[in-house]
Amino acid sequence: MTNDDNNDPNFSPDREESPDTGVLLKSRPRTQKPAMYKVIILNDDYTPMEFVVHVLEKFFNKNRQEATDIMMHVHRKGVGICGIYTYEIAETKVTQVMDFARANEQPLQCTMEKE
After folding, report:
1. Do 42 and 109 touch, CB atoms closer than 8 A?
2. How far is residue 98's CA from residue 104's CA, in Å, rounded to a whole number?
């Protein structure tokens, strides 16, 4: 870098000159998509099915049919995906479900895992 570069009003350390045209190009940082996380409900022998359907409607904005389908999947397979979200949203949803279940004296378990 020469002393003249510092006096140039168009000079920027994050710009580089194109070798073919002499035009200054500003480099842009590349952003990555955030990691996504599955929010999962686990089956147990005590939580009523209707309570699970209510949780899916309330916290995951599922309609009655979607919520019932997910609940039946959890009932048959032992686990079911409620939704896929960024880390912060998934963490919030897990906390909301767990707090709601405890407030209603239900043993429902909800967790998250990276997709």
Report:
1. yes
2. 10
